[in-house]
Amino acid sequence: LSFMKEIRVIAIDLIGHGESEVVEEVSTMDLQADMIKEVLDKCEVKECVMCGHSMGGFITLAFAEKYPQYLKGFVLLHSQAIADSEKGKENRKRACQLIDADRIKYIVDFIPNLFAKENRTRFSSEIEDIKDILFKFETKNAEIFSRQISEIQDVKQVQALVKALQDAKSL
Q1: What's the gap between Cα 63 and its chain centre?
Q2: CA 142/CA 149 separation, integer angstroms
């Protein structure tokens, strides 16, 4: 892993996650993308490979659309480059309803199921850590972000992003 000495990693506390506060309805994917650009500018980063996990993938797509000149490439992890299907939107809405009804139960039931059965014991400490973090996460955040994700358009948006990246690299 000697190559890691040459890589700079910047982990950003997205609005409404970690230690940052929720900015209610104005916390859009575009606002998150603008905030990331400000962080990169402050850190004097001119080019990067951005990795977006889950909702961060949608924020990465918004960033790529607005600021393609910053990106050498991007990675979507546990995210997708297409809009949710109707069933996916229904599942997100149902998850929000379950969270509203009993957030603690949802976290307790949901998090272990993210791990294969054979790994739940092995990673029991990490599972508890994740639960502890989520217990601190405000309920309204999950609903706001789930709704924002369900508003992502379709594959044409991603194709436009790819073209914008290609155009930026040819400058």
Answers
A1: 12
A2: 11
Give yes or no for residue 167 having a pLDDT over 70. no
Q: Annotate 65-133 with DSSP letters as a single string.
A: HH-GGGEEEEEEES--SSPPPHHHHHHHHHHHHHHHHHHHHHHHHHTGGGS-HHHHTTTHHHHHHHHHH
Which distant-in-sequence residues (6+ apart) come within 8 Å of 54 by Cβ? 77, 78, 79
**Model's pTM, two decimal places?**
0.63
First to last CA, the chain: 33
Q: Which of 99, 96, 95, 59 is nearest to 77 (CA)?
A: 59
Q: Which backbone phi and psi does 22 adopt, to 5 degrees?
A: -75, 140
Query: Which pLDDT score, from 0 to 100, does residue 171 have?
Result: 45
The SS3 call for residue 50 is strand
